[in-house]
């Protein structure tokens, strides 16, 4: 098998692992499940309000931002619990700042949502 074929096969396998990880997140993580429901509601609202292509891009980007950072937060929590299952101030600090990153993404998404939808309501 050529190096190129090996490269392509490796990338396809990598996509498979990534898809598996995304499905694990959606099946097992309550925060991601809530965000997925909000994403579906916002998508339905987008169709209902007939938002523009630019607004769709911003909304899709905001949804992806929040859900991907939540996934990374879950990863940080899992690593922290694996390397140090017991209570430790440093673990608490690590988990808090990872959660803080999700909070920043969520606030950003709310602001984007406000900028998109408030003009449609007035
Ligand atoms: N081992 C620990 N040592 C110190 N503090 C911890 C520890 N585990 C959790 N905490 C504290 O509890 C908070 C919640 O942690 P936890 O692992 O329960 O995440 P969570 O809120 O359930 O996150 P998510 O809802 O995203 O799964 C942390 O942000 C941290 O302040």
TrEMBL record:
Give the membrane topology. Answer: Multi-pass membrane protein
Q: Which CDD domains match?
A: UDPK_IM_like (cd14265)
Q: Which UniProt keywords apply?
A: ATP-binding, Cell membrane, Kinase, Lipid biosynthesis, Lipid metabolism, Membrane, Nucleotide-binding, Phospholipid biosynthesis, Phospholipid metabolism, Transferase, Transmembrane, Transmembrane helix
Q: Report the locations given in the UniProt record.
A: Cell membrane
Q: Does the keyword Lipid biosynthesis apply?
A: yes
Q: Predominant location of this chain?
A: membrane
InterPro entries, per the entry: DAGK (IPR000829), DAGK_sf (IPR036945), UDPK (IPR033717)
Which residue spans traverse the membrane? Answer: 32-51, 97-120
Q: What's the superkingdom here?
A: Bacteria
Keyword Glycosyltransferase on entry: no
Which PANTHER family does the UniProt record give? Answer: DIACYLGLYCEROL KINASE
Q: Which family does it belong to?
A: Belongs to the bacterial diacylglycerol kinase family.
Q: This chain belongs to which protein, by name?
A: Diacylglycerol kinase (ATP)
- What's the source species for this entry? Aquimarina litoralis
């Amino acid at each position: 098998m050529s190096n190129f074929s090996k490269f392509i096969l490796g990338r396809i396998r990598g996509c498979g692992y990534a898809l598996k990880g995304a499905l694990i997140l959606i099946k097992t993580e309550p925060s991601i499940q809530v965000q997925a429901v909000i994403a579906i509601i916002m998508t339905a609202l987008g169709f209902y309000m007939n938002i523009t292509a630019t607004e769709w891009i911003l909304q899709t980007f905001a949804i992806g931002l929040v859900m991907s950072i939540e996934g990374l937060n879950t990863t940080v929590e899992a690593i922290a619990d694996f390397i140090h299952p017991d209570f430790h101030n440093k673990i608490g600090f690590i988990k808090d700042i990872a959660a803080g990153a999700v909070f920043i993404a969520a606030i950003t998404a709310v602001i984007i949502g406000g900028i998109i939808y408030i003009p449609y309501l007035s």
